[in-house]
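Students often ask why we bother predicting the structure of a whole assembly rather than each chain alone. The short answer is interfaces. A chain on its own may look different once its partners are present, and contacts between molecules only exist in the joint model. In this exercise we take two input lines together and write out one structure for the complete complex. Read the inputs first and try to guess which parts will touch.
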Amino acid sequence: MKMDCQQFRKLISDALDGTLTPEQSEAFARHRNECRSCDREFLKQRRIKLYLQSFPTVREVDEAFRRELVARLRRGEMRRPHVLRLPAVAGTLAVICLLLIGILFGIKTYHQYLFREGIFIARFEPPGAGAEPYEQSGQGVQVGVLTRTDGPIYVLNLLQLRPEEFVIRLLAKYQTGEVREELVRRVLVDTGLLEGVRLHWLEQDSFQQFIGRPQRAEIIFPQALPDRLVVMMSGDELLSLRRFGLDVVYAFGIYVPQLKANVSDELRQLVPRTLQNAELIDLLGSSFQEKEIAPDASFITLIRFAKLPPSQR
Amino acid sequence: MVPLVIAQKVDSFNPPEVQALIARCQAGDIDAFEELVARYQKYVFNIVYQHLGDPGEVEDAAQEIFLRIFKSIRRFRGTSSLETWIYRIALNYVRSFCRRRKLLGRLFVQPPARTGEGHSFDVVSSLAADTLDPAATAEHRRLAEEIVEVVNQLSPLYREVLIMREIQELGYEEIAEILGVSIGTVKSRIKRARDLVRQKVNL
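Now the answer. The structure tokens for the assembled complex follow.
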């Protein structure tokens, strides 16, 4: 029986245990004589085995061990009660409780914050590839579609913003030339936020006189201002909103399932029925980075105004 | 048709004196159990010490193992040798002990206070004093320590069989019976464990 190196190495373990058959044993010994490398490998493994056999062992056990054990048995003490390290246990429990309370409080606060501040997270995707043109409903609410299907998700938060303040701020920024007329028209006029507001420069269908001229403007708000509106914005416009002080914040990895359902319903009601086939997807918890806003991209932005208590109205 | 016969296996695994001892223990004789402890305490200590690798835990573990033996010896039917049965109990205890220790048990549970004549045992020193160390030279000692370290770092699957085979010199059949696996599985695990040690030890 002839043995090669591979066969030899497979049999080293059996050889160490002395379980080779006589034929295997003979071929094993012959190969050892012929191959120095395999012989060395066998000797190394045998050396390890010898070292393992010198593993520490217990030589004697104290008599006291047996005495204590039997005494326990006679006392019927079959189970030694575990004694807890109270400071460690108490400290750990306290930390866990604090963490839980903190997490619960954080979630609750975040929920309240989301609802109070009117943060909405939404992405609107048309059924089919490619962008669809703007569609304007009769109520002055513009709805558009995203020109990118896997783009960033925006969380627009207009902190503590009341409609009156929003209008004034936007007009003020327009007056200083920081906001384009197109945006003012779309956000204020087309959405119906300024419907019924009498502004003398508005009658001329142009805001040009208003720009750069510090003048007194009488702004009359309608009886019932909307507390929310949906507008279509480009990436640039979104950035410009941030620049002129409307607080656009973004959430990192925060997932609020309850809110998700609410947002869906709310947004579905706002989206005109002409786009009923489109799938509206709410996405929560993504990050917002300015660099991800492509200048040519358009976004639906839902602006919700905080409701003032009657005493402050 | 061959009649179904349920035969009680004859206790042929244990010598008569051990069978007698087992019978007395099964009857609840604590003196007999003390004899059993005297007979097998070194055996149990070695199992625990070599599988656990922590001298400080050996004595407590051994006590708990003997208590388990005492509680369950009534169920011992003699279908294996008493050593094999004890080994299985000890190994199960060591495994569960290791699992508990992993779960921060040490942080929250104090080691039990010793009773017995008003003093505590120093297990580490007493075991250390009783432990054989044949490695005479510094190189031998280094190598022996390295091998012990490598064995301790093996996964339990391989460490257990290697300790049983190489250190405790149990046969394949006995190892298979203790672990509840086939002899082929034992052989392949031993081979794999040896290969792993060989790869890691710098010879």
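Check your guess against this: The first helix of chain B runs from residue 16 to 26.
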